[in-house]
Amino acid sequence: MASQQRQLHGYHRLAGMMGKSDELAIFRRFNDMNMLSLLSLQAEILELRDNLYMLCDGSRGDAFSTSMFKMKNDAGAGKDQHAAIQVIRGKMQQYSKTIAPGLWHS
Question: Rounded distance, CA 35 to CA 72, Å?
Fold first, then answer.
C-alpha cells in the first residue's frame, strides 16, 4: 500500500515549516504579560515582607533576630516568623526565575 502524503493546515503546517529551520521559528515574548506578572509578584512580596515585619515587632520578635535555629524550633512567634520566611523564600525564587537579568533594579 502506498503511503499518502497528508496535507497539513493551520498550526500543524506552521509547525512543520518552523521545524525545518530554526530561523523560521517565531515566538512572541508577551512582554506586557511578563511585566504584569513581575509587578504582581513584587506586590505579593512586599505584602509578605510587611507581614513578616509585623510578626517581628510583636512579643519576643527580637528574640529570633540572631538565631534562625531558635526561630525554627520555637513553638510560638518564632514558628510563625519561620513559616513567613519560607513563604517569602518561595516567592523570591519564583520572582528571581522570572525576571530578566537586565531588569534588576534596587
Answer: 35
